[in-house]
Write a structure and sequence with these properties.
Radius of gyration: 38 Å
Helix content: 55-70%
Number of helices: 10
Oligomer: single chain
Number of domains: 2
Shape: rod-shaped
Order of helices and strands: HHHHHEHEEHEEEEHHH
Largest sheet: 7 strands, mixed
């Protein structure tokens, strides 16, 4: 008989330990209260040999074991869902690492667009000298197309093809042309007036058409440069009216930013979902805690088969 008592008490300790671990995992006040109350009941039997030890075993069978099985099922369901979220976070991180390895970043773009503006101003000044003196010297700076080649894909803004095609259409009678470049006559006049001081504004692209937009430093006048054609033309401000000039992030950097924000949201959801407890389970745990906290609970333990059946039925549902 004493061996049976020792076995039941040892089994009770193991069951209560499992309940403690689950209360720590879920960080739920009601589970913790049930755990504490289960400890009190265990100690009551442990310190009072006159009590029927079989009632302790019955208590665990009816309440604690079923509660533990139910909480394990919820935990496994939560872990399956959080596992999918963690997989997505991992894949997003891999993508971020690949994109972060790009050679051309917002920082290099900011530096290179200033350099490009300097190259354009120098090239236009040289072009003016070549045209006016009828020389046969290449006026455009070396590697002047590299800027667009490097940055058009990620940093230039997409615009409707028809809009850009219209902007680069010109009247042959109104341009200067030599083997190296084509420039609008009126544009050359403005450049001379402003001493070839212009700044880079933004880049535009529509399919294979790429254009760089520049602005005169002292007035709201714009011109474009088409690297593939060495073409310089005045353009209307309406061409960039719908372009967000404050957004200097590359497409890759915008994707990285979006992926990082998504990962932050997913990580927050993981923390919440990992310990998520359905409302109906919270209510059931509250009812159980109230019952086992009743001073007459042990006297009536044989009459609580119905409550145990509720716990077992919850184990068989697909609410999770």
């Amino acid at each position: 008989m004493e061996d049976n008592r020792v076995t039941i008490l040892n089994d009770s300790i193991k069951i209560i330990s499992k309940l403690q671990l689950l209360s720590v995992f879920f960080e739920d006040e009601m589970i913790y209260k049930i755990y504490l109350r289960s400890q009190v009941i265990h100690q009551l039997f442990e310190h009072n040999q006159d009590l029927d030890i079989n009632k302790l075993e019955l208590f665990h069978l009816q309440f604690t074991a079923s509660t533990i099985d139910l909480l394990k099922k919820i935990k496994q369901s939560n872990e399956r869902q959080t596992s999918l979220m963690l997989d997505e976070i991992y894949l997003n991180k891999e993508m971020i690492e690949r994109l972060d390895g790009s050679e051309f970043t917002e920082k290099t773009f900011a530096v290179d667009m200033q350099r490009q503006a300097g190259k354009i101003n120098t090239s236009l000044r040289n072009l003016y000298m070549v045209l006016s003196e009828e020389k046969d010297t290449p006026p455009l700076s070396k590697n002047i197309r590299n800027f667009s080649n490097n940055y058009a894909g990620d940093f230039f803004h997409d615009v409707p093809r028809a809009l850009l095609e219209q902007a680069i259409t010109f009247d042959e009678a109104k341009v200067y042309r030599n083997p190296y470049a084509v420039i609008q006559r009126r544009l050359m006049g403005l450049l001379c007036k402003h001493e070839f001081r212009t700044t880079f504004v933004c880049g535009l692209k529509a399919d294979e058409i790429v254009a760089e937009i520049y602005k005169f430093s002292e007035e709201e006048s714009y011109y474009l440069f088409v690297p593939a054609r060495n073409l310089f033309l005045l353009c209307d401000a309406a061409l960039i009216a719908n372009v967000d000039l404050n957004n200097t992030l590359s497409k890759k950097e915008r994707i990285v930013q979006e992926l990082q924000e998504k990962n932050d949201r997913l990580q927050a959801m993981v923390e919440l979902k990992k310990k998520y407890m359905p409302v109906e389970i919270k209510k059931l745990l509250g009812d159980n805690c109230e019952k086992i906290s009743d001073v007459n609970f042990l006297q009536n333990i044989e009459n609580f088969d119905a409550q145990a059946n509720i716990l077992r039925s919850m184990l068989n549902t697909d609410f999770m």
